[in-house]
Input
Amino acid sequence: MLRGTSRWTLAALAALVVLNAVLLILVLRPSTPPSSDQPVPTFSPVPVTPGAVAGATSSPTPEATPAPAVTPVPATRLLTAANDRVAWRASTGTCEEPAVLERTDDGGATWRPITPGVAPAVRMKASSDTQVFVIGGNPAGGCSPTFAFSRTSGDSWVADDGELAGSWYLAPQDRATVHGPRAEVPRPCVAAVDLAGLDLIHAGLLCTDGGVWLTADGGATWAQAGTVADAVAIAPTADGFLLAVLRPDTCGGVGVFPVASDGAGTSEAAAAGAAPLGCAPIEGAAPGEVALAVAGSEVWMWAGDAVLRSSDGGLTW
Output
């Protein structure tokens, strides 16, 4: 009996050893990966700029195109008006080339030529429908200043140089001297664009560096009220001056700014991006070729090939 029992015990032990071996093989065998025709994807890190959206296409920020710089030059045009119908305009000319004057009596629709006999013309002012005076160079006197006036709408002219003493004008020879009713002094800047006489003691001088110079003592002394770098013309008003500016960023044509006789308004006109009082829709205006005239509430502007009028002080055209 003992031998039989031992044989069964040994057989059971052998069976357990085999079973353990099988289980151990199953546990240690590697698992089979799933079948696939696609390779296992791999990923690479994509650098992202802080604040940017990953995957978005970066585009350069467009830069604002600066407005072309304006370089004022001495005026080559003059303009004066009596009312909304009658005005005179002039191409200034030189000491060798006479000024060319024209007159309109239909609001600028038509113009007729006039010959005052000055070369060049440096100042012109209308006092009525039929009366106007011109100050310029005397062709027979070496370009020395001369005063000519007409009471016949420009049909005939009379020279009266005795009026020069009480007048505002730039020396016709070189525009280097500013003559006023009470003094004659060198201009206070490198070069003058134009001079606007308001009355016997007040005047405004616009310079090519944008300087706006004012006097309140007949021209004996001058003080700079400010700098309006893109100003190209100046005209007297009832109580001050009107500046014409070329400012493409705020006006597609020619803008106007009022300046008081004491300089108030100059800083507003000089401010970058400041919107003008009004904007005359004239294309192609160039420095030196813009002229202003004021007669009451009527404002005339000659710029480029156009002559425009405003009946509300320059607000609308």
Q: What stands out?
A: The CA atoms of residues 135 and 147 lie 5 Å apart. Residues 2-28 form the longest helix (27 residues). Confidence is low (pLDDT under 50) at residues 1-66.
